[in-house]
Specification:
The structure holds 3 protein chains of 3 kinds. Chain A is mainly α. Chain A has one domain (2-55). Chain A is built from 3 helices and 1 strand. By secondary structure, chain B is α/β, with parallel strands linked by helices. Chain B has 8 domains: 2-108, Ubiquitin-like (UB roll) (Roll); 128-187, no CATH class; 272-437, 3-Layer(bba) Sandwich (FAD/NAD(P)-binding domain), CATH 3.50.50.60; 440-489, no CATH class; 530-653, Rossmann fold (3-Layer(aba) Sandwich), CATH 3.40.50; 665-714 and 729-776 and 931-1002, 3-Layer(bba) Sandwich (FAD/NAD(P)-binding domain), CATH 3.50.50.60; 781-927, 3-Layer(bba) Sandwich (FAD/NAD(P)-binding domain), CATH 3.50.50; 1004-1084, Alpha-Beta Plaits, CATH 3.30.70. Helices cover 27% and strands 21% of the residues of chain B. Chain B contains 29 helices and 49 strands. In chain B, strand 24 (589-594), helix 16 and strand 25 form a beta-alpha-beta unit. In chain B, helix 13 (486-504) packs across helix 26 (979-997) and helix 19 crosses helix 20. By secondary structure, chain C is of the alpha/beta class. Chain C has one domain (8-65). Chain C has 2 helices and 3 strands, in the order E-H-E-H-E. Chain C has helices at residues 17-26, 48-56; strands spanning 8-13, 35-40, 61-65. In chain C, strands 2-1-3 form a 3-stranded parallel beta sheet, with helices on both faces. In chain C, strand 1, helix 1 and strand 2 (35-40) form a beta-alpha-beta unit. The chains are: A mainly alpha, B alpha/beta, C alpha/beta. Chains in contact: A-B, A-C, B-C. The B-C interface holds B 215-216, 220, 303, 596-599, 622, 624-627, 629-634, 637-638, 640-641, 644-645, 648, 1007, 1025, 1054-1057, 1059-1061, 1069, 1072, 1074, 1077-1078, 1080-1082, 1084-1085 and C 5, 7, 9, 14, 18-19, 21-31, 33, 35-42, 44-47, 49-50, 53-54, 57-59. Strand 1 (15-18) of chain A pairs parallel with strand 3 of chain C.
Chain lengths: 56, 1087, 66
């Protein structure tokens, strides 16, 4: 999946997978923080967004 | 209602309210220092000063204690007001320049330095503390002195008994002038002040008098701890009632005595962890780095006091070396009275060591000091082996003393190595693996009920009635029956329920009530008319998220006909209103934006049903747990997120369709496969509860392995009890016995199976609703130790046969007997412990000693695993002179036959020298093997593990049932176990089955997968991926869609695995279909 | 640090991560308001199409958690 994204020109850090059990709220929070920080570093996703003009 | 104006805005308040209260309601900010919602206002700090125009002139008043009146005009933010307020703050700051709260306020009002001479006080004399103290019902402090010498003090500057150190003053002090630390130093001189210790966190953390015991508590509502609540000490306080939005707190509630008429009682009082405080030599009471295993559990828990960061308590640094000491408060008669084994500690210590290494990294050194490693549970031996591979060190030594190392936080331990040499080692932390004990209250309860206890204070039961107490009608389960782990407790619990069910079967369904059914409105084909209900949840959501704006926003979304907000959506009156609105506005889809669907979806769905709507036309937006609670410092973005979540829910619910829940009758007949003790017990339990039961036994008699066993640990002769059980089963009219019979086919699914039984070539079809697999096990026939070459060399069960035949002279006249343990168990090809053999051999050794006290008996073992109160037998055997010699896997005993003599050579672990025993009898404790039956596993679509035992639904919580609905298991087919445990599990399997049978009908969920046969390519991926065996192929000769896949709604759990893996897109998951999820995804990104 | 808050479409398993997210709320933990949760019955329900759709519709990232 990550390979596919890279192939399409999307940074792999825009896709994340994790496994968290329902008791691991601390892990949940740390994963959200980590992912958010990574995505912030990448900046807004502009490459793959469907643009109305292009579609038309 | 009083109508007036604040800052030109028309506002309304109730008669008797003050300006501040009304301003707060309208979100108009007025700063205060001395205001508290639960106290009468005093206007002491003057910070809340506002301008009041009464029609003629403007004057300044304090907003907190100025009552409102019709037509008044209040200004809170004019230049004049700001100027006046700034002066007041400046004066306060001059008095207390170091108080952070004042510094912040000053900064907000643009004050850098007060123009006045500064003092060095920290008290602004607002009197909040004294008013709070009065509210507490104490009056321990007051404002004393006059003018410049005015201060908060106790009468005559003396600490009096009036102060109960409740800390209320400190909790409200706006400046930090009063602090808990100060109260402690002042008060502790007289009385000991302690913070309230959280029971859940083993005292490693504090808690409040009003508290929820732990995050997952059921019910998840706060309780008031009467022992520490100030109200129950002084009659004052009740501050909490002022904050509760729904008036749920009633301090007048009394304990009630409720009398219940019952036909049976089940005791499940549990255990208490052993308190090691009295062991001076372990320094638990006075060294912070010696902790109990229960405290360790909390330290390792992500929801624990350190959020799962492993630290030692002396300095909160990460430990580098941790030791566990086993058998603290167990197997010990010198320092405590608990001579039994607590059964669970070996396994939990290994678990803690492995988790500790996972948390802290591989560099953490973990050592477990033990006597015998008892990993006798299912998959436990593998876990033990893996722990060794992961570097957990196991040291066979009981450490006597822990010596704190002077000048450091470390602990020193001296112990004896395997070779007898002395070693000394230092650790950062020592965990005491404390045992299980019956607390005195439980002993008292038992005495009151008149039930007998064992010498270890556990409930006395017998091998053949392991959940029955000595008093008829009173049953027991869990650790009060004997120290045990979770799976065994769960098995017990089901068995106790079944035992009670057996005697109460006649009363089933005699006290049930029928719910009224509202006819469902047909909404198919209608344009969506969506209603959105946004919940404030008191201040839980509304305190962060701008709820009215979310509701207003929701109203603008496509298809939304109605949107509103409410204080508590889950309150009964709101629910009734919701149902009315749904009917009045003819809504056909509903979104509730509130808490989590995991707890509240069923409640709101009920409301839909009550309003005549299909309950699947519903979606929740989780704006509390996922929003307001976690973004409280970011209200703007939280509100935006709430709007996003509502939009996503609205866009999804638009596409929701009414779903039907199918109803299926359950055939009230049971099929038990296996006629051993477990199977017969299951069958008898089912029959006693009124269900027709078939027992299928492949041999020509009932009883299975029990025929080979001489007696149980409690001394019952198995043959007698077995005959009783067989007789019972034989004479029960509800039970049909099929001997010499095997299954040749199984069709159908939960509630409606049809099995084909083959008896000597004849076949017979039996329809049944559930099945119990009790296929049992067999003893290993060993190929080592010269077995089979001499009649004096026998397996444990063969010795039982000879013990049964009274007074076999070969047994009573033997001079020396040797028992070899772990024959075929705990070896690489069979890495599990057979659980029963240690006890069995020791019991037989004792029997031989009884017949011939002069006989020399040797038991050659690896670890003695006489768990629970079986430990007494081990103790007795040692006392009676049975000699225990330990060997390890690399140095197994050698058996030679020479000159008609059996010579057993073993390397003694103490001397390190080989010794040879001339034996007249050699008993081999051979492994218990499962009767591995792959065909049966395929028939019922249930899994087998590597060792050939069946794999249960859940190792801890579902030990007697399979993941496949309607199929249950018990006995040796699950794992090796003694007779009492097989009986308990037989009952447990029947008990689980009865929960299904008693319902009579199965209701399927609406959220199930469905195949569109026109799209299906018959590739079979769905059939192979489904963990619940729900998809199957339609028969090749079917009239319609032959060969295509179909999904059984009864078995489908709605996980969607097949939907995602279907290559043709032929499977749809109702309620979570592609278009519905896509709708949510696309709505997530609209702005 | 920019004030821009990314939008992360998050597919959470009803039984695992969704529960963890609920518990994080109950425990009043704080995290960035970046995620938008789509509750799915099980990660088995997850399809690559969902991730791609989310990115195409303008999500800054996708998170799948079981």
């Amino acid at each position: 999946m990550k390979n596919l994204l890279e192939h399409m020109g999307i940074e792999p850090d825009r896709l994340h997978f994790s496994w968290i059990s329902s008791a691991e709220s601390t892990k949940f929070v740390s994963v959200v923080r980590e992912i958010t920080a990574k995505v912030k570093a990448l900046g807004p996703n502009e490459r793959f967004v469907k643009k109305e003009a292009k579609v038309a | 209602m009083v109508t007036f104006k604040i800052n030109g805005q028309t506002v309304q308040g109730e008669e008797g309210q003050f300006i501040l209260q009304v301003a707060e309601k309208y979100g108009i900010e007025i700063p205060t220092m001395c205001h508290h919602k639960a106290l009468d206002p005093a206007g002491m700090c003057r910070v809340c000063t506002v301008a009041l125009f009464d029609g003629r002139r403007t004057r300044f008043v304090t907003a907190c204690n100025y009552p409102i009146w019709e037509g008044m005009a209040v200004t809170t933010d004019s230049e004049e007001v700001i100027k006046g307020r700034k002066l007041i703050i400046e004066l306060l700051l001059a008095r207390c320049p170091e108080v952070p709260a004042l510094q912040q306020l000053a900064k907000a009002y643009g004050i850098d330095e007060p123009r006045f001479k500064t003092e060095n006080d920290t008290c602004i004399l607002c009197g909040l503390c004294t008013r709070m103290c009065e509210k507490m019902g104490n009056n321990a402090i007051t404002l004393t002195g006059r003018g410049l010498s005015l201060e908060v003090d106790t009468p005559f500057h003396l600490q009096t008994d009036a102060c109960i150190a409740c800390g209320a003053c400190a909790s409200v002090c706006p400046t930090g002038h009063i602090s808990l630390e100060k109260i402690k130093t002042h008060v502790t001189a007289k009385a000991k002040v302690e913070t309230i210790r959280s029971e859940y966190d083993m005292g490693l953390k504090g808690r409040k008098p009003v508290y929820v015991p732990y995050a997952q508590a059921v019910p998840n509502t706060p309780a008031i701890d009467r022992d520490v609540c100030v109200h129950f000490k002084t009659g004052g306080c009740q501050v909490c009632t002022e904050f509760c939005g729904v008036n749920a707190i009633d301090h007048k509630m009394e304990d009630e005595i409720v009398e219940l008429d019952v036909g049976a009682i089940i005791l499940a009082p549990g255990f208490e962890p052993f308190d090691p405080t009295k062991f001076d030599s372990y320094a638990y009471a006075n060294h912070p780095n010696v902790i109990t295993s229960m405290e360790m559990e909390r330290l390792l828990s992500a929801s624990g006091p350190t959020s799962g960061h492993l630290v030692r308590l002396s300095d909160h640094k990460a430990p580098k070396k941790i030791a566990w000491f086993q058998c603290v408060g167990s197997r010990d008669q010198n320092r405590c009275d608990n001579s039994y084994c607590s059964s669970v500690c070996c396994m939990y210590a290994i678990k803690e060591a492995v988790i500790a290494k996972e948390h802290a990294g591989d560099d953490l050194e973990c050592a477990i000091f033990y006597m015998d490693m008892r990993t006798h549970g299912k998959e436990f031996e593998r876990f033990y082996n893996n722990a060794q591979d992961k570097g957990v060190r196991f040291v066979r030594s009981r450490v006597h003393t822990i010596d704190p190392v002077r000048g450091s936080d470390e602990l020193s331990v001296r112990y004896v190595n395997d070779d007898g040499s002395l070693a000394e080692e230092q650790f950062d932390m020592i965990v005491l693996s404390i045992g299980l004990e019956t607390p005195p209250e439980t002993v008292e309860l038992a005495n009151k009920l008149g039930i007998a206890l064992t010498e270890g204070n556990f409930c006395k039961t017998s091998s053949f009635e392991p959940v029955a107490t000595s008093k008829p009608g009173i049953y027991v389960c869990g650790a009060f029956q004997g120290p045990k782990d979770i799976p065994q407790s769960v098995v017990d619990a089901s068995a106790a329920a079944a035992a009670a069910g057996e005697i109460l079967a006649a009363g089933r369904n005699t006290a049930t009530k029928q719910a009224e059914v509202v006819p469902e409105t047909n909404v198919i084909g209608e344009r969506p008319r969506i209603g959105v209900f946004v919940c404030r949840c008191g201040i839980n959501i509304a305190g962060v998220v701008d709820v009215p704006s979310v509701a207003q926003y929701a109203a603008t979304l496509p298809y939304v006909e109605y949107a509103t907000d409410s204080l508590y959506s889950c309150a009964q009156d709101t629910q009734d209103q919701m149902a009315q609105i749904i009917q009045q506005k003819k809504l056909n889809r509903v979104v509730v934006a509130a808490c989590t669907p995991k707890t509240h979806e069923p409640l709101f769905q009920e409301t839909l049903t009550a309003a005549g709507l299909n309950k699947y036309l519903f979606e929740m937006a989780n704006i509390r747990n996922h929003d307001s609670w976690v973004h409280k410092n970011n209200p703007d973005l939280a509100t935006r997120k709430a709007k996003d979540l509502v939009r996503m829910a609205v866009n999804k619910v638009r596409l929701m369709q009414p779903l039907q829940e199918a109803e299926l009758d359950i055939n009230p007949t049971a099929l038990v496969i296996g006629g051993g003790i477990a199977g017969m017990t299951a069958a008898r339990t089912l029959a006693r509860q009124g269900y027709e039961t078939h027992i299928v036994e492949r041999s020509d008699r009932l009883g299975g392995q029990a025929h080979n066993i001489y007696k149980t640990v409690s001394g019952d002769l198995v043959a007698d009890k077995l005959a009783e059980l067989i007789d019972d089963v034989d004479h029960n009219e509800q039970i049909h016995i099929h001997l010499n019979t095997q299954l040749s086919a199984v069709d159908g699914f939960v509630g409606n199976f049809t099995s084909t039984l083959s008896t000597d070539g004849d076949t017979q079809a039996v329809a049944h609703g559930i099945a119990v697999l009790a296929t049992g096990g067999t003893p290993l026939q060993p190929e080592e130790y010269n077995y089979g070459q001499d009649p004096r060399i026998m397996t444990s069960l063969e010795m039982d046969q000879r013990l049964k035949a009274a007074n076999d002279p070969a047994l009573s006249e033997a001079q020396a007997a040797v028992f070899i343990q772990c024959v075929g168990s705990r070896e690489p090809q069979r890495p599990y412990c057979s659980r029963v053999c240690c006890t069995h051999s020791i019991d037989n050794a004792l029997e031989l000693k009884k017949r011939n006290p002069d006989m020399n008996i040797f038991i050659l073992y690896r670890d003695i695993r006489t768990y629970g109160e079986r430990e007494y037998l081990y103790k007795e055997a040692r006392e009676k002179g049975v000699i225990f010699v330990r060997y390890d896997l690399e140095h197994k005993p050698q058996v030679a036959l020479a000159d008609g003599k059996i010579q057993v050579t073993v390397t003694d672990h103490v001397l390190g020298m080989p010794m040879t025993i001339e034996a007249d009898l050699l008993s081999l404790a051979t492994a218990v093997l499962p009767n591995k039956d792959e065909t049966l596993a395929q028939f019922f679509k249930v899994p087998l593990n590597e060792d050939g035992f069946f794999v249960e639904k859940h190792a801890k919580l579902g030990p007697s049932e399979f993941a496949t609905d309607g199929v249950f298991l018990c006995g040796l087919a699950h794992y090796p176990k003694p007779i009492d445990e097989a009986i308990v599990q037989g009952r447990a399997a029947a008990s689980r089955a009865v929960t299904l049978l008693a319902r009579g009908k199965i209701h399927t969920s609406g959220n199930v997968a469905q195949v569109d046969p026109m799209m299906c390519a018959s590739c079979g991926v769905c059939v192979s991926v489904c963990p619940y065996s729900a998809p199957s192929f339609i028969e090749a000769d079917a009239r319609m869609h032959a060969g295509k896949a179909q999904i059984n709604a009864v078995l489908c759990k709605g996980c969607g695995l097949c939907v995602a893996s279907c290559r043709s897109g032929a499977i749809h998951l109702k309620g979570f279909d592609n278009d519905q999820i896509f709708a949510q995804i696309s709505a997530a990104n609209w702005e | 640090m920019s004030d821009w808050e990314p939008k992360i479409v998050s597919f959470l398993c009803n039984w695992c991560s969704y529960g963890a997210a609920d518990l994080a709320g109950v425990s009043r933990m704080e995290y960035p308001p970046s995620i938008r949760v789509v509750r799915i019955p099980c990660t088995g329900r997850m399809s690559p199409k969902f991730a791609l759709a989310a990115l195409r519709e303008g999500a800054d990232a996708v998170w799948v958690s079981g």
